[in-house]
Specification:
Blueprint: H1 11-36, H2 47-101, H3 108-131, E1 133-134, E2 137-138, E3 149-150, E4 153-156, E5 163-166, H4 171-177, H5 182-186, H6 188-194, H7 200-244, H8 248-274
Parallel strand pairs: 2-3
Antiparallel strand pairs: 1-2, 4-5
Helix pairs in contact: 1-8, 2-3, 2-7
């Protein structure tokens, strides 16, 4: 006897139910992609791809954090460079005063005024050193009363923990070496030796120039590293998108198709469920 004429086994309903279940399963998967925007939203979708995606997300997060840290160092370096530039400009004015004091013709009240001017400029240098702090840190202000803790800075530059070190410059030593006695400033011969090519003042002036070059290079390095990290983050995000992002236009069209298939499968199941009742017509 054919099972098509049986009330115990409804083959048509079984087929319709299997089709409905398959369509519903596909529809749930597509709805998940549309609602999350991901073709791989979690490890149940594709464990290997999800593991790779999590690693890439971690790299992106670490690079973003590194850029934030380097942003703070940017501020410290910019403040330091600004302070050193101001100090260098002040040293130029101090050198001009020393040139006047190196002249034997500068005597009396005029000499006293130049000496006072030099010491006033030196006091300015001390203030610039003390104020060259940023966020509680300073690279040059190790004079008592400085605005920040003096010390070398080491900053993480990427997601694997590589570091870049920024050295300090002895502001206190600079200030002390430029503090000349009234006896020294009172002698034109002594002052002349301070501003020769190998004199104490010129050596210190040149050392400030060297530090300007050093910190300028450090700022360029940090800026370039931040820019590189940002570009790398963009590249990683693009790769991540190719790996896990859903094609929403395609999934939207598929969603509509599956919704129609689900409705048809439901109708087919309803018709198949009604088939055994036809057998009642065979009985008077």
């Amino acid at each position: 006897m054919s099972i098509l004429n049986s009330v115990n086994t409804n083959y048509g309903a079984t087929v319709a139910l299997e089709a409905l279940n398959n369509t519903t399963s596909q529809l749930n998967a597509v709805q998940k992609q549309v609602s999350t925007g991901y073709i791989v939203a979690d490890a149940t979708d594709n464990g290997a791809a999800f593991a790779v995606a999590q690693r890439v997300r971690s790299d992106v997060s670490a690079l973003s954090t590194s850029n934030q840290v380097m942003g703070g160092v940017q501020g410290l370096l910019s403040t330091t460079l600004s302070g050193l530039t101001t100090i260098s400009n002040t040293l130029t004015s101090m050198r001009n005063v020393l040139v006047n004091l190196a002249s034997a013709s500068t005597q009396g009240t005029t000499r006293t005024q130049y000496e006072a001017q030099y010491n006033s400029l030196l006091s300015n240098v001390k203030t610039f050193i003390q104020d060259a702090g940023y966020n509680g840190m300073t690279l040059i202000g190790n004079i008592s009363g400085s605005n920040g803790t003096f010390g070398r800075v080491s900053v993480v530059t990427n997601e694997v923990g590589q570091t870049y070190g920024v050295a300090t410059f002895g502001g206190s030593a600079l200030h002390m070496s430029l503090s000349f006695t009234s006896t020294q400033l009172g002698s034109s011969t002594t002052v002349a030796t301070l501003i020769t090519s190998t004199g104490t003042f010129i050596n210190k002036f040149n050392s400030v120039g060297t530090e300007l070059n050093t910190y300028g290079a450090s700022i360029n390095f940090i800026n370039n590293q931040i820019s590189y990290n940002s570009n790398k983050i963009d590249a990683l995000n693009n790769g991540l998108g190719s790996l896990v992002d859903a094609n929403l236009a395609q999934e939207s069209a598929l969603l509509q198709s599956l919704q129609i298939k689900q409705q048809l499968a439901t109708q087919s199941l309803t018709i198949a469920d009604q088939a055994p009742s036809i057998l009642l017509k065979l009985f008077p």
